[in-house]
Amino acid sequence: MAKEGVQDIIAIDGPSGTGKSTTAKMVAGELGYTYLDTGAMYRAVAYLVESGELRVESVHNSSLNLSFDNNNHILINGVNRESEIRDPKISAVVSKYSAVPAIREALTAQQRKFASEHPCVLDGRDIGTVVFPNAKHKFFLTANYKTRAARRLLELQNAGKAEGQTEESVEKNLRARDRADSTREIAPLAKAQDAIEIDTSHLTIQEQVQKVLQSVGEAARCNNSLNATHKG
Ligand code: DC
Fold it and tell me: For residue 22, what are the CA distances in angstroms to 27, 37, 134, 183, 226?
């Protein structure tokens, strides 16, 4: 059960390596919300097209069978493909697919449906700007490139996918993806005007989770006291 007094949707946007997913997962856990990793959905489409299982021309809401298991691992047609979608080969091409209008339309529709069924924390690039422009809580996470590259490399090492990767090569991929993601015509990576920006370069995961929870809690308290004033 979700705790009372908070709105149903929390949008956490920003580039990769800023701690978005870990923060979103922990915030969701604390509040009893469901976590939706929208980047994994774009990676899944990239994986399907690259492996020849799907043609870009045929991408449609109903042609994509994506779901998540209890560990937040993505299931494509019911099969766990978490490892495949995190491969650097997919990271290198995913921006190309996430700029395709039909792919964005299909995944945006799925994200809206999913969040209409569960109180949800979503992380991505366009959640606060396009998918849920009316979300009550919006955050935009940033960090400097050195920090982001070091975090991504550690993630790859932990997943056994760091072969041939260095901080420099990871940073190069991050810069290329940022460029592609923030200059594409549709739903570019951007901070919503009403999003709270958090620079995570010098924060621990616990600190950034606390910042998000504090802000969500303050908004809820403020709402409650406004309601009480109104009633009184
Ligand atoms: O968060 P990530 O690195 O797993 O995301 C993979 C790619 O998907 C990223 O390069 C941009 C794209 N993406 C997007 O365009 N919109 C989203 N809501 C989430 C991710």
Answer: 9, 10, 23, 26, 32
This prediction's pTM: 0.91
Please name which of 135, 99, 95 lies closest in space to residue 12, comparing C-alpha atoms.
135
For the Cβ of 82 lying below 6 angstroms from any atom of ligand 1, the answer is: no
Handedness of CA 165, 198, 213, 4 (dihedral sign): negative
| pLDDT band, very low/low/confident/very high, at 230 (cuts 50, 70, 90) | low
Burial of 35 (0-12, 13-18, 19+ CB in 10 A): buried
Identity of residue 165 = Q
In this predicted model, what pLDDT tens digit does every residue of 80-108 receive, in sequence order? 999 999 998 999 999 999 999 999 999 99
* Ligand 1 atom index nearest CA of 85: 4
- Alpha-carbon dihedral angle through residues 187, 190, 195, 196, given to the nearest 10 degrees: 150
Question: What is d(CA 149, CA 190) in angstroms, rounded to the nearest whole number?
Answer: 20
Residues 142-153, buried b or exposed e (16+ Cβ, 10 A)?
ebebebbbebbb
**DSSP letter assigned to residue 127:** I
C-alpha 231 – ligand 1 centre gap (Å): 44
Ligand 1, residue 107: give the atom nearest the CA: 18
CA 30–ligand 1 middle distance (angstroms): 24
Q: What does the DSSP assignment read for 165-180?
A: --HHHHHHHHHHHHHH
> Does residue 16 line the site of ligand 1, with CB under 6 A?
yes
The protein residue whose alpha carbon is closest to atom 7 in ligand 1 is 39
